[in-house]
Amino acid sequence: MNEYFSKNSTEAELSGWFESSDDNSSLDLSSPAPEPVLKLWDVVLCISGTIIACENAIVVAIVFYTPSLRTPMFLLIGSLATADLLAGLGLIVHFVFLYCIRSEAVSLITVGLLVASFTASVSSLLAITIDRYLSLYNALTYYSDRTVTRTYIMLILTWGVSICLGLLPVTGWNCLKDESTCSIVKPLTKNNVMILSVSFFTVFVVMLQLYVQICKIVCRHAHQIALQRHFLSTSHYVTTRKGISTLAVILGTFASCWLPFTIYCLLADYTYPALYTYITLLPAIYNSMINPVIYAFRNQEIQKILWTACCGCMSPGMGCRSRSPSDV
């Protein structure tokens, strides 16, 4: 008889563990129930947040402590790195308050921080794209006070809109009191997620259009330079192809990271398995891990500063030529 009750008790414990680790509800970013079971996906998010924070902290420090990098292009790169840094810190703080210090109020603030930081990250990518386009379209007047003013306006709009969207779940626009209004990411409401998704699609379409125009300008400029030299050299085609390939990688990376999660947000609701949310959310988070590589570490001036800081010297093949935003 004792063996029977012991066997049933063990089976009940195992059953409870699997139910906790594979919950068929939305991804819960709000304060969990007492004594939550540690989930592998949350650990992955925390580790990813740590890597993201470290990467982007380096970029922020370089831009902040280097006076020569106070140009509009680097200000926008610094804005992108700051947004991704806050996103990484938000993932770490979310893990801490999910499993260590449980507080509903702090959890809402953490969710607001994540929404604001990821919105600022995507908006900064749009601002960088606009800056690259204008550096080609208005090449003669780009290096003027008007460009600096325009950059500050874009930064104010980027962070103003992002902070407003991040404050929505904190100021009461959440589904904690009515679970039927929840989205796939609790405590965000379905309407809140729809606004974020539509905003992303708008940003993506604008970026796509701008990069198409950039490709046209790059091809036209390369062709004009080749004609001035009275021949179309092989290097003309190589340079043009390389520029277009780089732009395709930039836009393709952005789309592949964010589109799955955005589409899933529009189609699914809180009744869908949390596993699907994690699978589509991870690529979007990894976009903040890839951004420093694409927009910062490829830049020759930032590479030069990193070499100087790490090795006390510069790489022999690394020149000191200042790159413009149109260099891709």
TrEMBL record:
Keywords: Cell membrane, G-protein coupled receptor, Glycoprotein, Lipoprotein, Membrane, Palmitate, Phosphoprotein, Receptor, Transducer, Transmembrane, Transmembrane helix. The chain crosses the membrane at residues 40-66, 73-99, 105-130, 151-173, 193-212, 244-263, 275-297. GO terms for molecular function: G protein-coupled receptor activity. It is a multi-pass membrane protein. Coiled coil: none annotated. Its main location: membrane. InterPro entries: GPCR_Rhodpsn, GPCR_Rhodpsn_7TM, GPR_3/6/12_orphan. One of its GO terms (cellular component) is plasma membrane. It is found in: Cell membrane. Pfam families: 7tm_1. Gene3D superfamilies: Rhodopsin 7-helix transmembrane proteins. Residues 55-295 form the G-protein coupled receptors family 1 profile domain. Belongs to the G-protein coupled receptor 1 family. This is G-protein coupled receptor 12. It comes from Acipenser oxyrinchus oxyrinchus. The lineage of its organism: Eukaryota, Metazoa, Chordata, Craniata, Vertebrata.
